[in-house]
Amino acid sequence: MIRYAELVEYIKKNHVNWNTDIFDVLKGFFEEYSCHDYLQPLPPPSYPLIQQKLIIPKNFKEPENGEYTTDNLIDLFST
Known about the structure:
The protein is mainly α. It has 3 helices and no strands. 42% of the residues lie in helices and 0% in strands.
């Protein structure tokens, strides 16, 4: 997993200009990333993980056009 700090370090080390297109920055980062062995296992979290089950009301229907409106979300979370 890539850590945000690694990307920040790449930006500092390479003196990336703030006006540089983000995709160019990421391209350079991943080119360098693939040449190094950055992949290290993450330590286990110091807090317990919580698993939750999403319950969608039976009367809720997805919008026909696939686009949710504010009213759709209010209806979903108010039931």
